[in-house]
Amino acid sequence: MAQDLKIGIIGCGAIGKDHCRRIIQTVPGATVVAVSDYVAAAADETAALYGIRSFGNDCDGMIKDPEVEAVVITSIDPTHHDYVMKVLAEKKWCFCEKPLSQNAKDCEEIMAKELEIGKKMVQVGFMRRYDRGYAEMKRIIESGEIGRPILIKAAHRNVSQGPGFKTENGVTNVAIHELDICRWLLGEEYKDVQCVRVRQSANSNKGYDNPQVMLMRTQNDCFIDVEVQVADGYGYDIQCEVVCENGTVKLPDPYAVVRRSRPDVTKDPGETMPIMTDWKERFIEAYDIEMCEWVKSVHAGQLTGPSSWDGYVACVAGDALNASRGTSEFLPVKTIEKPELYK
Ligand code: ISE
């Protein structure tokens, strides 16, 4: 392989630190040369860990630095669009964590810039597409062996969310994964969507809706039901079942050993199985593959992963879901015409 791709990371929070470790320790053909964060000390700390350059809170300076060939954006969601635009202004490769933006309009601006460059420059961090469970589900659905998909029943349950979390973020930050993975699994686009307010959990004491139920219908009338909890009181739990005409496919739970024990031997008698609480662990293998594939495609000069178009479609559906809350109506998901570049 050619020389290592020299990456700069914006954002040294949970996933930023994780991607930094991942790229440096496990991804062939790439290395992290610099980091930055709006909290300068966070960048300094991560940089010190690996002996790399810290740009402190000078994220713009890092984007422009000639040593940095590609930028990974892992800063907080509302900053994604602006940083992507700045990376594109430098005509550098970009990996942007989900969501691509907070709304569809901003994604259109990103696509317009890519069209001007004449090349896909951005990959969006929809890592579930690289998960073995989802990939096998897609393979079975596409084989047609169990007939046409009719319904998807999904759940996205988190233990907690950070400060500043709002009801709308249940869509833009959380369900955005399902908005991407369901259309990817089915190979179908959304027709309309509705967000339904349901009975609230006793854990809902932080000022945002929990749970929320999101309903989506595809253009071919496949019905999708996603339960989103951001304070579920027990663990990180991702469920997805696709009901087809002659059978079903279901996402497997992550690997975990089942333990059986006597009450006098352990404090957890009976049959027990640990449940995850950290979302970064649940899809760790998918994150690893995603990063390796992105780097490989950058070396090949042709991005193959989830594109700005995919980030955009998820945001169009997300905007409609947020607008539908409280209306008891399905709202249409209207996209612009798909540019040739993304076909
Ligand atoms: C987080 O940003 C993620 O991307 C996780 O996959 C998701 O489950 C979590 O709710 C988000 O906050």
Description:
With 343 residues, the protein is of the alpha/beta class. The protein has 2 domains: 5-128 and 285-307, 3-Layer(aba) Sandwich (Rossmann fold); 130-278 and 313-342, Dihydrodipicolinate Reductase, domain 2. The chain contains 10 helices and 15 strands. It has helices at 14-26, 40-50, 59-64, 80-89, 104-117, 132-143, 169-186, 279-282, 284-300, 308-324; strands spanning 5-10, 30-36, 53-54, 70-73, 93-97, 122-125, 149-157, 190-197, 212-218, 223-229, 237-244, 247-250, 259-261, 270-272, 331-332. The strands form 3 sheets. The protein has a 7-stranded mixed β-sheet, covered by helices on one side. Strands 3-2-1-4-5-6 form a 6-stranded parallel β-sheet, sandwiched between helices. Helix 4 (80-89) runs parallel beside helix 5. The longest helix has 18 residues, at 169-186. The two termini are 28 Å apart. The structure holds (2R,3S,4s,5R,6S)-2,3,4,5,6-pentahydroxycyclohexanone. (2R,3S,4s,5R,6S)-2,3,4,5,6-pentahydroxycyclohexanone (ISE) is lined by residues 158, 173-174, 177, 279.
How helix-rich are the residues, as a percent range?
25-40%
**CATH architecture descriptor text of the largest domain:** 2-Layer Sandwich
In DSSP terms, counting alpha (H) and pi (I) runs of 4 or more, how many helices? 10
Largest sheet: 7 strands, mixed
Q: What fraction of the residues are assigned to beta strands by DSSP? A: 15-25%
What is the alpha-carbon Rg in Å? 21 Å
Q: Per CATH, what is the topology of the largest domain?
A: Dihydrodipicolinate Reductase, domain 2
Number of strands: 15
* Overall 3D shape: globular
| Unreliable residue runs | none
Quick one: CATH class of the largest domain? Alpha Beta
Spell out the helices and strands N to C: EHEHEHEHEHEHEHEEEEEEEHHHE
Number of domains: 2
| Class derived from helix and strand content | alpha/beta
